[in-house]
């Protein structure tokens, strides 16, 4: 391949990845890389295989064939210590999956203590630091039921960050949120990106993809249809399938406003 990013090994390197569920081939030969510090947004219609791709990256799903390397480890190698690799990958899902009986602080310390075996003091310090970072410095003692969806999702991001991941995977982290809560979560993700975190993000938030992604990957029917810089893929897609998808997700009026600036009152 000719892209310069291929010259250095990527944090995520996927070659000819196939995944079938029974007779249904969901991923049909995916080649894909995410370089260090890169933010890649994956877009595509429902059922195109976006979540399955992410789940193959941390082996929540076992690929049918192909190779997946993460941070230099080939996770498709049966000999690999998958738990060790998973510790280097932070994952944030649409549903937050917080422990309801633990406070924000408790939710962010528990995996540090159980998986990384940090002592209480160290886990606590890291938890406070990452909760501050996601704007929840005043919510250490709150239980999930006392937090908004957006705050809960930021606890989930803090929980992933506390493990010191080399790469963060996000699967539609804002699609379960009320519209007014989406901005805070995207704001945290944008800050992470600016700080140089390597991120692979499945999202329907086209404005986020346009502004934050280094590269946008459009998937349909289990293949990568096209990829490139967001301004190219989103504003000037080469493939009809990409065009059709974008015209469905982008409100055409809003898209015009985005280009021309806000309408005068
Ligand atoms: N565990 C599973 N068993 C059987 N089929 C599955 C399984 N997981 C996913 N699939 C199928 O694989 C296809 C791709 O699913 P996937 O969740 O990856 O799509 P997606 O692009 O993330 O869609 P969405 O935008 O709706 O989240 C779908 O047809 C789905 O029904
Ligand atoms: Mg999905």
From TrEMBL:
Superkingdom as given in the UniProt entry: Bacteria
Domain ABC transporter, residue spans: 12-246
Topology in the lipid bilayer: Peripheral membrane protein
Family according to the record: Belongs to the ABC transporter superfamily.
GO molecular function: ATP binding
KW ATP-binding (keyword) present: yes
Pfam families: ABC_tran
Keywords linked to the UniProt accession: Amino-acid transport, ATP-binding, Cell membrane, Membrane, Nucleotide-binding, Transport
Compartment list: Cell membrane
Protein name, entry field: Amino acid ABC transporter ATP-binding protein
UniProt-listed PROSITE patterns: ABC_TRANSPORTER_1 (PS00211), ABC_TRANSPORTER_2 (PS50893)
Matching InterPro entries: AAA+_ATPase, ABC_ATPase_HisP-typ, ABC_transporter-like_ATP-bd, ABC_transporter-like_CS, MetN_ABC_transporter-like, P-loop_NTPase
């Amino acid at each position: 391949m000719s892209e310069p990013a291929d010259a250095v090994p990527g944090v995520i390197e996927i070659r000819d990845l196939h995944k079938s569920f029974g007779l249904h081939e969901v991923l049909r030969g995916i080649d894909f890389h995410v370089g260090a510090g890169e933010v890649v947004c994956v877009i595509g219609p429902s059922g195109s295989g976006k979540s399955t791709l992410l789940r193959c990256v941390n082996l929540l799903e076992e690929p049918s064939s192909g190779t997946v390397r993460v941070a230099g480890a080939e996770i498709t190698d049966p000999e690999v210590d998958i738990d060790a690799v998973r510790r280097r990958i932070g994952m944030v899902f649409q549903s937050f999956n917080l422990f309801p009986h633990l406070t924000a602080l408790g939710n962010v310390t528990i995996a540090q203590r159980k998986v990384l075996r940090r002592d209480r003091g160290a886990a606590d310090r890291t938890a406070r630091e990452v909760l501050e970072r996601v704007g929840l410095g005043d919510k250490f003692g709150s239980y999930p039921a006392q937090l908004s969806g957006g705050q809960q999702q930021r606890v989930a991001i803090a929980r992933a960050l506390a493990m010191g991941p080399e790469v963060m995977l996000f699967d539609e982290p804002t699609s379960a949120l009320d519209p007014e809560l989406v901005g805070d979560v995207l704001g945290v993700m944008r800050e992470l990106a600016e700080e140089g975190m390597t991120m692979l993000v499945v999202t329907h938030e086209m404005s986020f993809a346009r502004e934050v992604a280094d590269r946008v990957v459009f998937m349909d029917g289990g293949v990568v249809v096209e990829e490139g810089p967001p301004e190219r893929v989103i504003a000037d897609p080469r493939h009809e399938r990409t065009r059709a998808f974008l015209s469905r997700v982008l409100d055409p009026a809003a898209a015009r406003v985005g280009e021309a600036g806000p309408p005068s009152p």
